Target: Multicopper oxidase family protein
Amino acid sequence: MSVTRRQILAGLAGVSVLGLGAGGARYWLGRPEEAKTHDYELIAAPLDVELVPGRKTSVWAYGGQAPGLELRARQGDWLRVRFVNRLPEPSTIHWHGIRLPLEMDGVPYLSQLPVLPGESFDYRFRVPDAGSFWYHPHTASGEQLGRGLVGPLIVEEREPTGFRHERTLSLKSWHVDGQGVFGEFSVLREAARGGTPGRLSTVNGQASPTLELPAGQVVRLRILNLDNTLTYRLNLPGAEARVYALDGNPVAPRPLGREYLLGPGMRIELGLRVPALGTALPLRNGPLRLATLKSVDSGEAAADWPAALPANPVPEPDLAAATSLGFNFEWVGALSGNMEQGGAFKFWQINGQAWDINDKRCAERPIATLQQGRSYIFELRNVSQYLHPIHLHGMAFKVLDSNRRKIDPYFTDTYLLGRNETARIALVADNPGVWMFHCHVIDHMETGLMAAIEVA
Ligand SMILES: [Cu+2]
Model:
């Protein structure tokens, strides 16, 4: 049994689910009759966990874990998740990066009504692309994601890849004090800047854990940034690591280099050649250690670098025939005057329009309407000093170029737009509906930096 399979089983123990193993084989856990209607019963509920040693933190968990239960499906198959809300407030689940029909996208009042406490909702959709994705609410995001409602969704390739071992590393910082007590998820002065950071950094819910990896093997590390705010400056000094995929889409394998900026919502898949037995490598955010990767005996012959992962069936935009649209991401720079009426603060806007999270009808005013089947080029212009990981629902896009860095064009669902950067992305508008287009710094999204794009 591989390291991966053991971990999956350990992670699922005691939870009532039907899952897919790393090799694609189905196995049973829990009550078989439930499998007729869904693959997973995913319960969101309060849970006490120990984030700070000796202290209890009351988080909100998916499937009894925070970050949530790792969901797995096989490319091209259906994923059926019964979401059960045992939280004290309404919620939904959005499946970040999955190309699916609008009614499964989890956006309140657009895809579905919020799922009330005590209610459930069945999500059912096919997963067209293999890769590392994640799920989270699209309601009261600052608090709900902040309390722990974030989880990995791994879509396995249909055929075995060259990787025999893999690990998922979910990065999240928590807005807790030294006693493990939650403070504010959003502070106004921070929302108007880079967003409110958590103070306690964790990997898979543990502060600075030691992760054991098989010596001599090339391990697929799926690193997911599930944080509300932080852009991690990922680095693995002393390691032999290659990039295999970015945000759910394969790239031609290349050395990791000195560091990689992983913004909120973004993912990177690395091949890591695990060094000789007993070696410890730091995984770092800039100079800060996030985790220690320790090599342990695998009992297997040393492995070579796997081949590139197979490309996903994302439609190639027709650049010659594409229509260009410009999107400016700006700071509003004013405290809104409508606080007395219960309005939201607005610090950010796209093309002069700030999204109001309290206005259920914002989606009825799309910022752009795309003709179904046509190709488009978006020019994204960041007219601010802060980083904005720009995410589009419903469709993957191809990053073409940037005025600030050299780009090898690649497909993604989230692009980290640097300060004063202009980048061009392209897509085929092949998925009808009204799709959220927003910054994944949750503070930015909740104070204006969100819009709707219609495909009709
Ligand atoms: Cu932003």
